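ESCALATION

Customer reports they have been waiting on this structure for their group meeting. Please prioritize. Original submission:
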Amino acid sequence: MHIRYTDWNGDELSREERLEELLKLFSYLLMKSSGDVDQALRWMDYLNQSRGILGDMTMQEFVDELKRRGLVKEGGDGGEGLGLTGKGRQRIRRDALEEIFTSLKKGFSGEHRTPHSGTGVEQTGDLRKYIFGDHPSNINATETLSNALRRVADLDSFSLREDDIRVQETEQTTSVATVLMLDISHSMILYGEDRITPAKQVALALSELITTRYPKDRLHVLLFGDDAQEVSLQELPFVSVGPFHTNTRAGLRMARSLLRRSRGANKQIFMITDGKPSAMFDDAGRLYKNSFGLDPKIVNKTLDEGVACRREKITISTFMVAQDPYLVNFVEELTKSNNGRAYYTGLGELGEMLFVDYIRNRRRNYTGGR
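Update from on-call: job pushed to the front of the queue and completed.
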């Protein structure tokens, strides 16, 4: 074995920490560029020239580090430039998750639970009498023995009765099937505000959360513009906005179809949008569009989907990243029709509000009650 000695560098840790911050910035720029590695690197180069973000590292050394870590590879789209690897896509999801969790207040993280006691694995701290069928691992030995000893005069007459047994109360954990609907209409990049990048960040982070912490849960991500389409987790970084209207009805209809496949799970839709419904397909399959005000024909058909979701015990949580009066009016009607939830949130609070709602899962239970 050969041992190689080098001079001690007291800044080594800070260099590694700085590199980690640069990698997080690169992940964000990749989201903003819809997975275009070369574009993200051009932005990094601009920031380095104007702000010196790389320190004593050159751009080529940074690119070499990305390759060494297996985040990028030669040969992007069409075999030219650099492309994102599977490990690179996973890194984007991980960084998105960490970014959102740093904004969560302490105490919000943890397994999502129903608000009802049941036969799950999370102890509440409360005790109750034994009921036939309780799992032996939930028996509180100290309290059970204390009850038995209080009944007897000495240890020779010790006996244990069913009435003595106390068990730890538990909260009922549940699996969840979620459809995350992302609005990709043109307004998501209009008016000088990039709304699609924070929305994608939430989608990427939620996918990483479910993959790593809640593997029994299901997550579908679908995009809705003129029409609706499901995208895979691998495609998420490459999602971009198009010259589309907002066909909320098509999105809700596809979401219902996807959730029908999930048996025995609580079902919910998270919809991130910045605009009122402005399009739908008519009975002949033609796209009917109206961007002016709230078109009753479009609105009523969309609200019908909200009612259908309620009948199928699917709750819709709408996260509005704009407060246009027409959007607010529509969302209030949709929430009423579905008995769902609505959040008027800025882009900065989007991830926190959605994650708290998901993790707590506070309005779901096995019996469908509220």
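Sent to customer with the following note: The chain has three domains: 12-84, 119-172, 176-360.
Escalation resolved.
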